[in-house]
Every structure is written in structure tokens, then in C-alpha cells.
Design a protein that fits this description.
The protein is α/β, with parallel strands linked by helices and 260 residues long. The chain contains ten helices and four strands. β2, α7 and β3 form a beta-alpha-beta unit. The protein binds nicotinamide-adenine-dinucleotide and cyclic adenosine diphosphate-ribose (CXR).
């Protein structure tokens, strides 16, 4: 069992929407010409007053179309398995733009929702976990959002992956990135710049050119894009070290700088 629809979701959604319109990303992302009440209606129409698993990908299309947004060239950042680090690098859209910086992702990120056929049309007590619904229902919102986001990307795109997870390869064809983002990049994309990040002081299980990153390179090139891959670039290493300056790897950088 799983927690239910986020309390006051209507106010959270509309409040986020108004805030986005008036104060958020003003210089970093184009505005969406829309109306928050209308977006809420289109969003809830996809799932409310239906049983919780009764959602198809198409249900969210009217919402996704109404909330669609142009994306800045060369700034789109995809990620898999590294939510918080990728968002730190993106720095609220100032460096890179993630799905969660766009209106669609901003409205939905970290809230829970599901329908029920009886009043009030949403279940505030319990929502199914992803495994309880057919794949399509479980994935439908984020699959549609990821697809639309990928279609809008232009120029060089970035992808941040986790090279230290013993349970999951860095690149998986069955991740949201593998299933909905890479296959939907348009010919307006020129190249894919991959950042493989590694947990400090832990084994670097996959590096550029090894393991699943070989499959990624092949899949990217097959789609006609240039491919670059970098392990732990300094910008990322410094973000990690700022959170854990005592780690062995960060201490080694300091000693090096002090000429030891
Ligand atoms: P990932 O493995 O890190 O998964 C991302 C998140 O998706 C997980 O943290 C989890 O909250 C959720 N998730 C995992 N399995 C799910 C399922 N079966 N159904 C619904 N949600 C599930 O990386 P990924 O799969 O490659 O997805 C990340 C990429 O896709 C990003 O580039 C992003 O643009 C997009 N995305 C974002 C979200 C989000 O919650 N903000 C969710 C899915 C996809
Ligand atoms: O809000 P929490 O995530 O409990 O956050 C737990 C930690 C945070 O510190 C955050 O940095 O996990 C990180 N995190 C993720 N890694 C992540 N991946 C996806 C936070 N949110 C994440 N998401 C998105 O946020 C997904 O849509 C997910 C939602 C909140 O997830 P959860 O409640 O587990 O469904």
C-alpha cells in the first residue's frame, strides 16, 4: 500500500502554477500562455472519477499540450538515477533545464495523485504503487511528460548517469530516459553529452566506454547524434565535495592543490 493523493492538491497545483507564472524561471525559460484553472481541469480530467489504474498515455495529452513550453537550445539536462545531483548541477534552470524546471514537471514533481470512481473523484487515503497497475497506467504521466520534453530539446543535450549503483546499470533501455527520452529526441538535437557521476570513495562500477555506456554510445550514434562521455567532470566533483568535504577523494584534491 502507498500514501494517497497529496492533501489540498488543488491548491498546491494552482499555487505552484501561479507562482511559476509570476516568479519562477523568469529569465531562464519562456512563459506558457495559459490559465492555471484550465490546466487543473485538464490535468484532473485525465484520472479523476476513474478507478486508479484506468489511465492511458493519451489521457494526459490535452494537459501536456496546454502546458507545452519552448526549451532553450543547448541547455536541456536528462538524468537517470541521480535526481538530486542533476538538479544541483542544473541550478534551477540557470545552468541547465530539467523536466522538473518546466511547467509540466514543476506542477507534478513530488506530489501523488490517483482517481476513484466515487466522490470526490480522487483517493486521498491510498494510491496504488507503480507495481499494482499495468505498466501503461503506472507510467502514463511521466512517460507523456518525458516524451514531450525530449521532443522539445534542441542542440546539445546533457545526460547525467549514476556509475556507482550495484543494483542498476548506468544506462538502461527500460528507464524513462531509455524508453521515452532518447527515442524522442528530434533531428534538432546535434549531440548528447553524457556525464557519468560516481559516489565519493565508492567503487566506480561503470566508466565511460565500459558496461552499459557502450550500449548508450551505440544507441546515440545510431540515432545520428554526436556522442561525448565524461566521468566526474570538475563541476560535478566540486558539487559532491561541497556536500562531503571530508571524503578521501575530496581530501586528495585539497592536498594536490596545496602542492603536497
Ligand atoms: P530513474 O530510474 O532515476 O527514475 C526516475 C524517477 O521515476 C524515480 O525516482 C521514481 O520517482 C520514478 N519512477 C521509477 N519507476 C517508475 C515507474 N515504474 N512508474 C512511475 N514512476 C517511476 O531515471 P529514469 O527512469 O531514466 O527517469 C528519469 C528521466 O525521465 C529524467 O530525464 C526525467 O526527465 C524523466 N522523469 C522524471 C520523473 C520525475 O519524477 N520527476 C519521473 C519519471 C521520469
Ligand atoms: O520527497 P522524497 O522523495 O521523500 O525525497 C527523498 C530524497 C530527497 O532528498 C531528494 O533529493 O530523494 C531525492 N529525490 C529523488 N531522488 C527523486 N527522484 C525522483 C526526490 N524526489 C525525487 N523524484 C521525484 O519526486 C519523483 O517524482 C518522486 C517524487 C518524490 O519522491 P519521494 O517522495 O520518494 O515520485
Amino acid at each position: 500500500s502507498h500514501r494517497g493523493t497529496t492533501g489540498n492538491i488543488c491548491h498546491v497545483f494552482k499555487g505552484r502554477c501561479w507562482d511559476y507564472e509570476v516568479t519562477r524561471y523568469l529569465t531562464d525559460l519562456p512563459r506558457v500562455e495559459t490559465n492555471c484553472g484550465k490546466l487543473w481541469k485538464l490535468f484532473t480530467k485525465a484520472f479523476s472519477y476513474k478507478s486508479p489504474c484506468d489511465v492511458q498515455l493519451e489521457n494526459y495529452q490535452p494537459f501536456l499540450e496546454a502546458a507545452s513550453q519552448n526549451l532553450p537550445e543547448n541547455k536541456v539536462l536528462f538524468w537517470s538515477g541521480v535526481f538530486s545531483l542533476a538538479h544541483k548541477l542544473g541550478n534551477d534552470g540557470q545552468e541547465y533545464v530539467t523536466l522538473e524546471d518546466t511547467l509540466v514537471g514543476y506542477l507534478a514533481n513530488s506530489i501523488t495523485w490517483c482517481g476513484q470512481s466515487s466522490e470526490p473523484g480522487m483517493n486521498y487515503t491510498r494510491c496504488p504503487s507503480w507495481d499494482d497497475c499495468p505498466l501503461e497506467a503506472a507510467e502514463s504521466f511521466w512517460a507523456g511528460a518525458s516524451t514531450a520534453f525530449a521532443r522539445g530539446a534542441r542542440g546539445q543535450v546533457l545526460l547525467m548517469l549514476d556509475g556507482s549503483n550495484p543494483a542498476k546499470p548506468a544506462y538502461r533501455r527500460d528507464s524513462f530516459f531509455g524508453k521515452y527520452e532518447l527515442p524522442n529526441l528530434s533531428q534538432d538535437v546535434t549531440s548528447v553529452y553524457v556525464i557519468v557521476s560516481h559516489v565519493l570513495d565508492k567503487p566506480k562500477l561503470e566508466l565511460c566506454g565500459s558496461g552499459s555506456l557502450q550500449s548508450l554510445e551505440a544507441d546515440v550514434i545510431e540515432r545520428g547524434f554526436f556522442y561525448t562521455c565524461v566521468d566526474d567532470p570538475l563541476a560535478v566533483r566540486h558539487l559532491l565535495c561541497s556536500q562531503n568535504p571530508q571524503s578521501r577523494e575530496c581530501q586528495a584534491i585539497l592536498r594536490h592543490r596545496q602542492g603536497e
